[in-house]
Amino acid sequence: PGLPLSPAQCCLVLFLILLLGDGWVLAVLYAAWLYLDWETPARGGRRSNWVRNWAVWRYFRDYFPMTLVKTVDLDPSRNYLFGFHPHGVLVAGAFGNFCTEGTGFSALFPGLTSHLLMLPFWFKVPFFRDYIMSGGLVSSDKSSAAYLLGHEGGGQVAVIAVGGPPESLDARPGALTLQLRSRKGFIKMALQHGAALVPVFSFGENELFNQVSNPQGSFIRAAQERLQKAMGLALPLFHARGVFQYNVGLLPFRRPIYTVVGAPILVPKTPHPSSEAIDELHKTYLEKLNQLFEENKAAYGLPEDRHLEIV
User: Fold this and answer.
1) Is pTM, for the whole model, over 0.70?
2) Contacts of 170 (CB under 8 A, 6+ apart)
3) Which spans are transmembrane here (predicted)?
4) Candidate from 5-14, 61-70, 175-184, 274-283 with smallest mean pLDDT
5) Domain ranges of the chain
6) N or C: fewer beta carbons within 10 Å in the chain?
7) Can you name the residues that pair with 116 across neighbouring β-strands?
8) CATH number of 39-301
9) Which of 165, 36, 5, 149 is nearest to 88 (CA)?
10) Residue 3: its pLDDT value, please?
C-alpha cells in the first residue's frame, strides 16, 4: 500500500538534522538500533495497542465516514489472508480499518490480530518505520507473510492490497477495475500455509481522489509504469480538496467508505501446491469476490448495471 509521502520525508529530514547537527550521537545510536532491528518488519512487526487506540483515529473514521462491515464470524483458531480490493490511491480503507481501532476491528473480530502488508521500502526510513509498525503494518515480502500465516495456534490476519501499486494508477471515482487476473502469489501463499482466504471489498475507496487522465498508451501512463517497475512505487497524479475549500488540494474528499469483509474460503494446507491447484483456488476466489460485490453493491450506492472488471 501507499501512504502520503510527507510523514516519511519529515522523518528522514529529522534523522539527517540529528546526524549532521548536535544530535549526531542520537542518530548514530538509532542507526545501531536500526541495524539490530532490521528484520522486525518481516517478523510480525511491533504493534502498539496504545497507538492503535489514539483518539485521532476516531476523527479519521468520522471524516469520511468509514465503516467496517462484518458478514460472518471468523474462527480465531485459524490464520487468515484478507485480499483487499480495490487498492485506491492511498489504501485509506485498509489503513483505517486494519491499522487502527477507529472502526473497531478487535471488537468485531475477537481473537484476531490484523497486519497490513506494505512495501519493504518504507521500513528503511528512520523513525517512520517504527511509527507504521506501531499500527500493525509489516513488510510485504514473502517471508513476512509466511511468518504470519504459519503462526501456530492461529489468530493472525495478513491483509494484502492484491492489486498493488499498479492498480492505484486506475483509481478514480467510478472505477471498478481490479488488477487480479494474473496475480496468484497470494493464492499460493494461502495454500502453502492452509490459511483461509477472505475477499474484502471497500466500497467508496476509489471515490476519494480525482486523478490526472492517464489512459493506457499515454505519455503520463508510460512514465508512471516505468517508474513503478524501476522503484516498485507508483505515483498517481491525484488531487481532491483543500482544508478550507473543496475544489483543489490533496486532502481526500469526504465520501463514505464501507469495507465489507466476506466469508472465508477454507484452504487445505498444501506445502507444494500444483499450478492446477493454484488456478482452481484463484478461480474460486474471483467468484467469491464477485459474489461479495454483487450482493452488497446496491446497499452502498451502486446501480445494478455496475460490475467489476477483472484485468
Assistant:
1) yes
2) 177, 179
3) 12-36
4) 5-14
5) 39-301
6) C
7) 137, 159
8) 3.40.1130
9) 165
10) 47
